[in-house]
TrEMBL record:
Family of the protein in this entry: Belongs to the inositol monophosphatase superfamily.
Gene3D superfamilies noted in UniProt: 3.40.190.80, Fructose-1,6-Bisphosphatase, subunit A, domain 1
Name of the molecule in the record: Inositol-1-monophosphatase
Catalytic activity: a myo-inositol phosphate + H2O = myo-inositol + phosphate
Known cofactor(s): Mg(2+)
Length: 265
């Protein structure tokens, strides 16, 4: 079906705004953990569930033929060729603790390719977006990646999964990366980390084990801002490995991650 990307973008922005308002203004003072997933530290709150319900309800009302993939369980194929990939709170642990870096991440994919990405971080007062081929924006202003420094001067973001064995493997890789770069940041929201690459606040970001809802929107935003993005050598971003960086940093970091076997547990 012929849906203008601009219509999808407008819907994604509005859904993210509504969910962001709900999450920021409606966060219970005594917010607790509603359930755990892959491990005892992989948590879901009532607000993750409420946010996903709001977003899927709003989008389905406007586009009943579309499919959905959401972190909290939304999963349907749809018949239009468009699928929405949704993280209702990326950075759930930050949200649980009242730290500011959490986001609502919404991507629209057409036949599997991301064509629209929106990442709204309400406490930071920032919404990033991109449309395939149309550049990347932060609060409506165009953004570009930072001019690449040598890897030894690069500020690199990363993150960790929730399962102990994988975390140990990620820590070992990080132990080899850290002495070769300026410094490391662990922001707690992959979506925001990717937007921080897009607007030049990080030179690079990498992580093993993300899910599509964590990276779909942010990867497009980083790429549209001039980042190179990829996964295992020669592959696109995938749950095995997500890398996004200013081009020259990418060219140095990806071989290092390959040498270190960063996609193995
Ligand atoms: C998590 C965040 C975190 C990353 C984890 C993700 P969630 O997403 O993006 O930065 O390191 O791997 O699972 O669970 O808060 O939606």
């Amino acid at each position: 079906s012929g849906e203008p990307k601009e219509e999808l973008l407008a819907l994604a922005l509005e859904a993210a705004r509504r969910a962001g308002d709900l999450l920021r203004d409606g966060r219970p003072a005594d917010l607790g953990v509603a359930a755990t997933k892959t491990s005892p530290i992989d948590v879901v709150t009532e607000m993750d569930i409420a946010s996903e319900k709001l977003i899927t309800g709003f989008l389905a009302e406007h586009r009943p033929e579309d499919g959905f993939l959401g972190e909290e369980g939304a999963s349907s194929e749809g018949t239009s060729g468009i699928r929405w990939v949704i993280d209702p709170i990326d950075g759930t642990v930050n949200y649980l603790y009242g730290l500011p870096s959490w986001a609502v991440s919404i991507a629209a994919q057409k036949d599997g390719e991301t064509i629209v990405g929106v990442v709204a971080a309400p406490v930071r007062g920032e919404t990033s977006h991109a449309v395939l081929g149309g550049g990347a924006f932060l609060n409506g202003a165009p953004v570009r990646v930072r001019p690449a420094p040598p890897l030894s001067q690069a500020l690199v973001g990363t993150g960790f999964g929730y399962v102990a064995e994988r975390r140990a493997a990620q820590a070992a890789v990080l132990g080899s990366v850290l002495p070769q770069v300026r410094d490391i940041r662990r922001g707690g929201s992959a979506a925001i980390d990717l937007c921080d690459v897009a607007c030049g606040r990080l030179d690079a970001y990498y992580e093993r084990g993300l899910n599509p809802w964590d990276y779909a929107a942010g990867e497009l935003i980083a790429r549209e801002a001039g980042a190179l993005t990829g996964g295992r050598p020669g592959d696109p971003v995938s749950p095995d490995l997500t890398v996004a960086a200013s081009p020259a940093v990418f060219e140095a970091l990806q071989p290092l991650l390959e040498d270190l076997g960063a996609w193995h547990d």
